[in-house]
Structure formats: structure tokens, C-alpha cells
């Protein structure tokens, strides 16, 4: 059985395990105050061309999401997100649990537009009694989205303008950042993300690390006391160097880009195979997640050798997600394509 | 520089890294629904003689502490703890952040007594208007305590009785459980913990794992929807098998006991060296944490080759904590003892 | 200027002020533990035919709403409501502030259906990993709704069935209960509300009292420690008898029904005048709130002598709310009707 | 039976009821946006010599306390208070329920000192890892304290200096402000409170109003979005003018001072009677709350005609609180004194 159900079903890139073994006899300072976290943070600051950025390492993405939001907003402020945003759908109300309303906007292929955000935030400022509503103070985007789609640089800039218009923070969830950066059609660089957002992160868990996310904060407002929010919510790992070392390993020689770009290439091959077979796509995705609509027979046949995730249903069949990852091999994809061709 | 400042300054026992490498080419189900978590949970249930226990794996101890408490209590219920309890002192108000008051009791050598707990909880039930106070609903103990001391079986049983008297849950923070179990004077077994508490945990981070804690829930009340609280607070690791596999490795052949007991033995050697030199102890600890009072000269001399943690001060000098851990070697301890003798 | 903008722009029915004056030289027990709260609660239990109901008096409706919800749900449970529900729109995220997600359902004329609720709650139970979502545990309805509309007894019974199917509490916000009970087309009695809901309330602030709401809890689950939640959130008035006495005065000789029914009658006269004039209604309401669409000229003319609330806009003009209340007089309505006729 | 058990057992000063009746036929804007709230706020700003102060009216004191704190602090910031502070003891963990730790300091006669506060706040800034602790950001004082005692102007200034040293807000709970201002030994004026605190309030519920507290905010930081926090927590009364009108009535001709000062004078008479009889005081209080230690016989005799509150016990008897209030009459006090003399 080959797992295409998600991009977090394998451990870590071998270089990560080697790096962990190599330092296993050494001792380090605790709670992220160590040389590896420092080196990784310096490297990230250099890569994003932002020498003043604060960089913090989180064990996981749900933590990164809700803690960034909790640290940025008071309880009378809210975050704007697509209705399909990960924070709204898959994180067990972690944002509400930290006292914040999510103001949802209907998505198109997982994305929301500057115009929608403008209308949503603008409505608050047109209220006669704004104090009876929550102040929209942050916009949350996923890149790539939960449907594998990408914002363009132009779209991101337009959203940044709306954020500036209303004094809102812009937060990009980069749990799959590598797969977005590596897509052929992508035109946003990490420097752009650092320049256009207030906070974003390099996903590690889904992009080659054992676990971990690297949060990059460029807004001075958000830097202050941020680590206290991390500690309060249990996101400061005692052995923080485990995270710093992993990101240093991934980023030092740009292994991060290499392995995620390769996953995108493999995903495009799968896409082409499905397309050639005339199978309908639920959404057009240029990244490592591909969503197709499979009838019962197709599910049964492909289900014999591959796991994929059923994310919904349509009159024509279920929506099936096929994910590649940094761990996916050419051979696995070739075998899948062969079986798609036989459908 | 040899680090005796804490018990989380080294990576993991080599068998852990080997186990992680061994499965690195395999793929697994996500979010703790995998074979390693299942095997580790089964093993723990067997060890604690509690076939119905729920076992959940957490990345870290602060998460385990506040999520157990948040899941067990409503906002009008509180947890009783020593004033020195980790949840009261070192976790950035994570418990208050989930809406709960900690009712603190003055400690003696890090411990609180059944009589103190009885008085604290009893006061609530003697109020004319109890609804204006929070209902004490859980007792939190650390084993070993933050000062390295241990509860005896008799003391634990007495506390259990008080909990039963008032319908309170008993929660034991076992971040250093191994070092408590391994102490010569300890008379509590893991079966006792399972039988006498509602929830406790096997600490991994400080006891040989890269990271992770194994929470054991025996109370049926606390089992329901527990994983939703974990997810909501970001404590469900995407690659949950990393935690299951580590605990399986530590517990399968009782490596856990072996390496923590050895650390206790080494700590006793350090204790004897300090005692022989006439250095005053801040507290009598039978476990891996030793607290001595050092004058300036002694700090300076020992500070040349060893890191230790200054946890407070007295008129006679600072309180210095020397920790051994599963990673501490005979050689390191011999060198330290040599230098203590030369003080 | 005559205020038709809302139903809380006058003090209290004269009998209320007389009752307050009559007892002003007496002294009473504090925090709702007094004879008037007891008498009012007994009277309510008798009226709703529910001798075991718990009755609590709140200063205001926002407090009643969020505290009922906070006391009933854990943070991993959510409340289902119409997207137009007061708790979702007009209370500054008070529900999210107590850690709960509101699962909104699209309304039709302010109402939601049993089938919609069934689909919403059912989706949770069909999830493979329900712990990553919040458990729907309560349904919130307003009676009358924010648009003045009413549920029928049949609709309420159907919703109760869905609640029973999924183990959900049913909570009816009765801030304007009197105006619903008094409507000609209404077929639900207070006994029905007590029998079919777990908790509902008699609104006082909008129905003749200076201020106050009487919450009736029939579910045993919800009774326990409820007053602690009230106290914790500042809803226990020191001079609780002020609330008990007001409700006793309103309910003793059924002044409550009399004055709210009269307001409904007056609202129907206004409705008929608008209808006769051919003015479009935004929604058909049988209660004290009437919503019409006025063009600019009409707004200007009516705005000279009357205040009304603009609650939205349509291509044909703004949506204007005209409210009657217990304090509205025949003369005021006659004058308004005269001016409508002249439009 | 004459109630001396507290200062909230009577309705309101007759002028308040008259004022409410006088406007009962008028209509007003909702939610505190009305002429009476404006007039009362203007009057307060004038009295405290602070034309820029924000003034908000709350239904009750528990609401005022926790909402001021919730609006001022983030979840990683804490409030320093006496262990006997009302927020720590009598409000059902309302502060913790809004995610804040209370850092308690041992009281002396209900008070804490600048030196104690300095030590408590200073400890945070001496931590190596301050992010693992909550930042002390506010000091909460009660004036008078829960034991009836008063801070002197010199003490208040010293505390203000410590607040400035560490960037902390100073908040004075004035639920009984009138009784403090009216005490013979008091040397702090309302202008002083406005000048030296960031936020304080005039208590109404215990000082002649039916209900209500007038919160005065002088710190610009705290003014922003304050009303949203009020609304979110249900503290914006729909008929806000009820509160504005009461405070206008109390303050216009300084009825507030007159009636509370008289209560202090009566309390001193009771104090003298107890002293003459050789009865021990638990604490020396110059205000309307007197605490004496009564043996069983004394309790029994005085309990026949008077209610008083038992607030604790000592080896020599219970601690009994006798309160006067704006509603206490000369006759009631004369009768009590007669019975004390007969003890």
C-alpha cells in the first residue's frame, strides 16, 4: 500500500536524521536558547532579506496558527479568513478557544480576494456602534491553500493594501510553503512574503522535517512578548535545538526547495495522468495536492494499492485527494500513473 | 563545560535514534492513529495493570499539564497545587489562560499533605455561598517534586482519600517520573499510580526521549472527548508515531527504568561528595536533582567547568541545582566529585 | 420626536416603579437570596407548570445569553444558531470570548429549520475524526426572532426532536418573549417552552421592566453550579430583589401579557397602514417589530417626527425598523399612521 | 430585625427613585448614548478635574473589576493585588476566567505597601527568562479595603511611583469610595484618585444608588475600545440612562458625599460603643465597616435584633462585621448602641 493520502506520513529527510545523530552526544541550552536555533534564525533572516525579523520555532502548525492569532489580537478583535481556512475547519475551534471570532469569507478554490476582504473589514467601520462588533484586525491566508491553489504576487499585494487601509495584520500559514514556492506558476518569493506580510511561516512537518514550523515575524508590534504566548500555550520545546537544527539542515543548502519542488513535479505527472484519462478535477491545483472526482469503480481499483483521502462528495463521485511529498519517489508515482492509465 | 544545569540538555538515548531511523522509510497514519502509538499504549496499559486506561502522547509537559486540567474542569472549578508546583511557577499562567484558578498551598520541601488539601477543599464546602468561590475539583502533585523530593505510598493513599471525600480528581505530573521510580527510598510503583490517580504521565523529554510525554487516564470521566482538547490546543502531533515509537522503545525492555535509575545513583554520588565536604543542602532530595547552597568562591570554582542552575538565594549563598540525567556519564560525575573534593 | 426605533427607550411600567418605591424602606438579603426573588421564581414555576425548574434573574440579555452557553458547554462543544442570531451578530463575540464556536446556519426570515439543524449536527457524527471538530451541543433560537418572526409549535417540536437525536440542549432567547406570546398567530405557550426547551427566558428589559431577564432552566444538567457561572461573569446583582420584585409585579396579574399583547396590536395597525400605502415589507412579521423598505423621500418625511432604525439597505431603499413596545400609546400610533397615509 | 450585615440591603436614596419617576414618560437613546449619561460623565470629569477622562457606567462592581482588568491586560500579563482583594476572594475567579493570573501579596489590615509591590514586580524583571512568567502590568487596590481601612495620600503616591517604575497601570476599586472619602482620617480627594490612578470608580450600589458603578479612565491606553469589552461581557445596559441619571442625582448637589459621610459618623458611634464595652476589634477601621470579635453569648444577644456578618473566627470568638450605609438611621444606631451597652 502506497500512501498518497497526505504529506506527513513519512519521518524526515535522511539528512535530518543524520544531523540529529551527529549532535546527540553534545549538550545544549534549553527552550530555544541554543546555537542551532540562533544559526537557523540567522539563516532565515538572511534568506528573507529581513535582518530584524524575529524567528521562532514551533513543534506544530495548529500551535503556530492559534498562538500567532492569540498574541496579535485582543478578545474584541477578530481574524478574517476563507471559510475553508484551516483555522476555521480543521483545528477544533482553537481560535475561538483563545477568545477570537473568525469572520469567514466564501472561498473560490480556497482563495479569497482583496475586494472581499475590503468589504468585510469596511462594514465594521461603517457601523454606527462599532463597539458591538469585533474589530477585524488580521487577515489569515494559507499558501498554498487547503485546495492546493496559490495566490499570485499581484493578489498578495492587493490584499496587503487592504490590510494597510484598515490597520490589519497579514498572516500567511505556510504549513506547505515549500510546495507553493516550488510550483511552476508561482511568482512569490520568500522575500516577498517577508516584505508583504506581518508574520508567516516555513512549514517543516510537511516539507521534510520530522516536525516543526519556523515562524517569521516582521511586524514590531507582534514581536514583543511573543515567546511568553508560546510558553503559555506549551509551544516552547524544552530541547529547542531539535527544531533549530532541522531548519538549519533544510535551509543551509536549500534542500527545502529541492525536495518540495520535486514533489510538485511528481504531482504534475499524476495530474497529467488523470487529465489524460478524462477524470474530472475538483479544483485546478499547481502544487502537491491533487483533487479528482472518482466514481465507485475508480475508487475501488485505486484503493487496492494506494491510500488517498476522501475530502467530500459530488453527484459524480467522491472528491479524492492525492498528495505527493518530499518522500514520494519516482517509482511510486510511476506505479500510480500506470494504474491510472488502466482505469 | 559539562552541563549539570538540567535534565533536558541532551538529545535522546541512542536506541531512540536508531528506532526512528529504522522506520524512516515506512509510512504511517497521521495524528496518533498508527501502529506504534497503539503498541506503546498497549504496553503501558499492561505495565500499569489497567487494561481500560486511555493513553495519549504529548509533545511536551506544559501542554500535558494545562490540557489535562482544561479538559477536566469547568471555569468555575479550580485545581489545588503546592505553591511551588510547576503549573503555578514555570508555565506562564497556562492554567489561568484556560480560565482556571490555582488554589495554592504552602509547600514543605516541594510537597503538600493530605491534611492541608483537606482543609483547603473543606473550606469551600463550609461556605454559606459556595457559588461565589471556585469548586476545588482536582489536586495536582509532581512526582518527583520540583525540589526532587518524593511522596510515599502512604502519603499518596491519604491524598487519594481526601480526593474521594470531596469528589476531586488526582493528577500526578510525572515529567521526571523515571527518576522518582528509580530512587532507593521510593515505594510507589506505576501500578500504584494507575490505581490511585485519575491521570498521570510518564515523562519522556527528561527521561531519555527526544521529546514527548505519555499521559495515562484511568478515570472514565476524563477520557471522553480528551483528544478534542488535545487537538484544540495543538497537542496532537501530525506524525504521532514519532512519540509512540519512542515510548515503545523506552518501555519495551524497560530501558526507561534502567537509565533513570542510573541517573539517581550518580546523583547520590554527587550528594555524598557535597555532604562529605560539609556543604549545606537546601533540601534533602533522593532523586536526580540535588540542591546545595554555594558561597561565591564555590560558585566561581565549580562554574569554571560545570553549568548548574541558580534557583534562588539564601543568606549563606545561592541555591545551586545540580542535575544528572539518563545522559550523564560516570566520567562526568567522577570529574565533578573530584572538583567538589578540592573546594 | 417619537421613538419607534426600539423597544427599550422608556423606563418601566408605572406599577414597577410603584413597587420599587413601596419596598424602598425595607431591607433584604443580598445576591438574589431574598423573598421577592423567591416569590417571583415560585410564580414562574407555577406558570410554566414546572415545579422543579431553576429560575435565575439576570440584569441583561447579553449576559443571559453568553452565561447560559458558557455554563452548558465545554470549549470543545459548540452552539448552532441562525446566522442572524443575536449571539452571532450583536453581542461583540461574547460567545467566542467564552471559548465557543457558533456554528451558523443560513436563516429564512430569521428562522432555521429542524432539517437544517439535523444536517449541521449530523455532519459532525459522520466525521472520521470528530475530535478535530467541535461537538454541536446546543441549539440557540430567538423567539420572536431578530426579524420579528415566530416559530410554530410544530416547528419547535421538530427542532426538539433533532436536539434529542443528537443529545443537544435547546435554548430559547426570549428577550422579546412577551411580544411573541401575544401575537395573534402564535400557538406556543410558556408551558410549551418549559416542556420543549432546556432553558429559555422571559425578557423583562424590553417588556415592561426597568431591566432584567428571568432565566428558566428545566434541564437538571444545566442547573448545577449555574449561579457560580453567573457570579463569575458579574451577573449576580447585589440587590437581587430589584429583579425579583419587577418580575413578580409583571407576572402576578399577568401585566406582562397585557402590555406586550397591546404592543402587538399597535404594531399590526402600523403594518396595515404601510400595507395600505403599498410600501414593501422586508419581512412579514406578526410581532412588535415591523420592517419596511423606504425610499429617500419617505425616510425624510417620516424622519421629521419619528425615529426608526435603519437595519440594512436594498436596491429599493433602506430597511427601516418600526418598533412598538409596552410604552407605546394609541396616540403615538395614530399620529404615525396619519403621517404614513400622507406619504 | 435591623440589618447591619452589609451596605447593600436597601433600595436607593429617595431622590434616586424620584428622579427615575420624573423621566419615566420620556424616551432615550439606548446603550449609554443618552443625555443623562452625558451629563453625569461631564459632571464627573469636572469633579475629578480631568476633562479628558472617559467615564463608563456599569451595572455592578464585579463586572467593573474583571472588565477593566480584561481590557487592560493581555493573557501573558497579570495583576498584583492583596491576598484579601475582592477580585481574589469573592468574585468566583472572574479574573482567571478572563485568562489572567492574580499575583497576590500578603495584606496587613487589608492593605499592601509600595515596597511589597516593588519586590513583586521587580522579581519579574530580574528573571533570566521572563517570558516564562506573566508580566505584572496592573496593581489593584480597594479603597476602602475589604477590611474598611484606608490608604493615605502618601501611600498612594508611593504606589504610583512603583507603577511608573515598572510601567504598570494603577486601578482602584471604589465600590465603597464614598465611605472612604467621608472618613475623618482620609486625606485623598477624588482629584487625587484621577491624578494618581489610571482607572478607578465611584461605587453606586453601596453608596445610595439602586445599582451601578461609574468607572473613570484617565489613561489613554485604556480608553480605546473599552466599550467593546463592556459589550462583550454584557455590561452595557440597554437603558443606560438609568445609570447616568442615578449618578447625576447623586453627584449634582453632592448627595453622594453627604450620605456616605453620615454613614461613617454612625459607624464611629458604633465603634465607640464597642470600645467602651472593652470588645476587641479585629481591625481598626475608620469607615462604615466595623469588625469586632464576639463570644458566643454576645453573638446570641446581639443576634436577636440585628443581623451582622460572620467573616471569620479567632480563638476568642467569631469576627463579626457591622456595616452602616447611606440608609442607616440615627435611631437604628441608637438602638444598637443601647444593646451593646447592655452586653
The CATH topology of the largest domain in chain A is what? Answer: Aspartate Aminotransferase, domain 2
* Alpha-beta classification of chain A: alpha/beta
Number of contiguous helices of chain A:
15
- The appropriate CATH architecture of the largest domain in chain A is 3-Layer(aba) Sandwich
How are helices and strands ordered from N to C of chain A?
A: EHHEHEHHEHEHEHHEEHHHHEHEEEH
| Oligomeric nature of the chains | homotetramer
Distance between the termini of chain A: 18 Å
Shape of chain A: globular
Query: Helicity of chain A, in percent?
Result: 40-55%
What is the arithmetic mean of pLDDT of chain A?
97
- In the CATH hierarchy, what is the superfamily of the largest domain in chain A? Type I PLP-dependent aspartate aminotransferase-like (Major domain)
User: How many structural domains does the protein architecture of chain A include?
Assistant: 2
CATH class of the largest domain in chain A: Alpha Beta
Secondary structure: number of strands of chain A: 12
Low-confidence stretches of chain A: none
Largest interface: C-D, 49 and 49 residues
The order of strands across the largest sheet of chain A is: 2-8-7-6-5-3-4
Strand content of chain A: 15-25%
Output the radius of gyration of chain A.
Answer: 20 Å
Domain Aromatic amino acid beta-eliminating lyase/threonine aldolase (chains A, B, C, D): 19-294
Cofactor (chains A, B, C, D): pyridoxal 5'-phosphate
Keywords (chains A, B, C, D): Aminotransferase, Pyridoxal phosphate, Transferase
Protein name (chains A, B, C, D): Aminotransferase class I/II-fold pyridoxal phosphate-dependent enzyme
Amino acid at each position: 500500500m502506497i500512501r498518497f493520502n497526505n504529506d506527513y506520513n513519512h519521518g524526515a529527510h535522511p539528512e535530518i536524521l543524520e544531523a540529529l545523530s551527529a549532535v546527540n552526544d553534545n549538550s545544549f541550552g534549553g527552550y530555544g536558547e541554543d546555537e542551532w536555533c540562533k544559526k537557523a534564525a540567522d539563516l532565515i533572516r538572511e534568506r528573507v532579506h529581513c535582518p530584524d525579523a524575529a524567528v521562532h520555532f514551533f513543534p506544530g502548525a495548529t500551535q503556530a496558527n492559534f498562538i500567532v492569532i492569540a498574541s496579535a489580537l485582543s478578545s474584541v478583535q477578530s481574524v478574517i479568513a476563507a471559510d475553508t481556512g484551516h483555522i476555521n475547519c480543521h483545528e477544533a475551534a482553537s481560535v475561538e478557544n483563545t477568545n477570537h471570532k473568525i469572520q469567514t469569507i466564501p472561498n473560490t478554490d480556497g482563495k479569497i480576494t482583496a475586494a472581499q476582504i475590503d468589504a468585510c473589514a469596511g462594514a465594521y467601520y461603517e457601523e454606527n456602534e462599532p463597539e458591538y462588533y469585533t474589530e477585524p484586525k488580521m487577515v489569515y491566508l494559507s499558501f498554498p491553500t487547503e485546495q492546493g491553489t496559490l495566490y499570485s504576487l499581484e493578489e498578495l499585494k492587493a490584499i496587503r493594501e487592504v490590510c494597510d487601509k484598515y490597520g490589519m495584520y497579514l498572516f500567511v500559514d505556510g504549513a506547505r510553503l515549500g510546495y507553493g514556492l516550488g510550483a511552476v506558476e508561482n511568482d512569490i518569493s520568500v522575500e516577498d512574503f517577508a516584505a508583504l506580510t506581518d508574520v508567516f511561516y516555513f512549514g517543516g512537518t510537511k516539507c521534510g522535517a520530522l516536525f516543526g514550523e519556523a515562524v517569521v515575524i516582521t511586524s514590531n508590534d507582534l514581536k514583543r512578548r511573543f515567546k511568553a504566548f508560546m510558553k503559555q500555550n506549551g509551544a516552547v520545546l524544552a530541547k529547542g535545538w531539535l527544531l533549530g537544527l532541522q531548519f538549519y539542515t533544510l535551509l543551509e543548502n536549500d534542500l527545502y526547495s529541492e525536495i518540495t519542488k520535486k514533489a510538485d513535479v511528481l504531482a504534475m505527472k499524476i495530474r497529467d495522468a488523470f487529465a489524460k484519462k478524462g477524470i474530472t478535477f475538483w479544483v485546478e491545483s499547481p502544487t502537491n495536492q491533487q483533487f479528482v472526482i472518482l466514481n465507485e469503480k475508480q475508487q475501488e481499483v485505486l484503493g487496492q494499492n494506494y491510500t488517498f483521502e476522501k475530502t467530500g462528495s459530488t453527484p459524480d463521485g467522491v472528491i479524492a485527494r492525492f498528495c505527493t511529498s518530499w518522500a514520494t519517489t519516482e517509482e511510486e508515482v510511476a506505479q500510480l500513473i500506470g494504474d491510472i492509465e488502466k482505469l
